Amino acid sequence: MAEIAQQVKEIIAEIWRESPAGKDGTWQEIADDVPLYALEEGEESLGLDSLDALEIAMVVEERFDVVLPTEIEPADIRTVRQVVELLNRLLAEQR
Fold it and tell me: What contacts 79, CB < 8 A, 6 or more positions away?
């Protein structure tokens, strides 16, 4: 899980730096359970938005050669931990 988590964090950090709410952060600064984007005003998050979330999903699909299920809602993959858990499940299903 650690290797996948690092790769996911690197993807997020790259998009985070390019985002309007971006920061010159590194993947090491991204905690596993901090929301990537807020669902409610004032909620603590990295400050990404729905377009950033879509970009993360597309890069994850390409980098890991998986297809995210269409029934996945943005709220289902709001943290690094949730993205990694989903990836582990999808990769296991491919074996």
Answer: 32, 33, 34, 35, 36
3-class state of residue 76 by DSSP: helix
Residue closest to 90 by CA, chosen among 55, 61, 56: 61
The tokens for 48 are 């990404």
CATH code at 2-94:
1.10.1200.10
Model pLDDT for residues 4-53, shown as the tens digit of each residue:
999 999 999 999 888 776 667 778 889 999 999 888 888 888 888 888 88
Compute the Cα dihedral for 14, 15, 18, 22 and give only its sign: negative
* 64-89: average pLDDT: 90
Residue of 83, 9, 84 lying closest to 46 (CA atoms): 9
- Delimit the domains of the chain by residue range: 2-94
| Over residues 51-73, mean pLDDT | 91
Nearest-10 Cα torsion for 50, 72, 55, 57: 150
